[in-house]
């Protein structure tokens, strides 16, 4: 019993209070840590979504320019109206207006010459992308022959700078400039 007398009064309570203090702090510290982790995960997730959306836009703009180029190069007398329709469907603005203006002459010469043009896409490259407008370099080949003709097909090579604009959710070619 003498050993109890040597301890100061209340020391047992003091030890218990000290032992409980870390437990009392653990809850708020853990809650704060979880909140910080959730905020960081949200921030990183937002950045990843933005980066993926930008990558998707780059790919979609290049794909739209390439598709338009193949449509431009692939016009035949057998389905000239459908071929012209595909070009018009993948264009907007100045590109659409210019093509629509020349479509009647293209239809006439294609039908009169019984021409079959087949296009092949060789390459696309993104030059710039900003605010829903992209500039894309496009390289394609065209093989032209007369249906039933014995002459060798003619091969032509094309290079364009195309401006592609996001219209709603679709990317459409709005300007086509040949590159000499």
UniProtKB/TrEMBL annotation:
> Which interval of the chain is the signal sequence?
none
Residues covered by region (Disordered): 1-21
Membrane-spanning residues where? 25-44
Location(s), subcellular: Membrane
Compositionally biased spans, kind Basic residues: 10-21
Q: Which UniProt keywords apply?
A: Membrane, Transmembrane, Transmembrane helix
Q: What is its main location?
A: membrane
- Taxonomically, the superkingdom here is Bacteria
Please give the name of this protein.
Mce-associated membrane protein
**What is the species of this protein?**
Streptosporangium longisporum
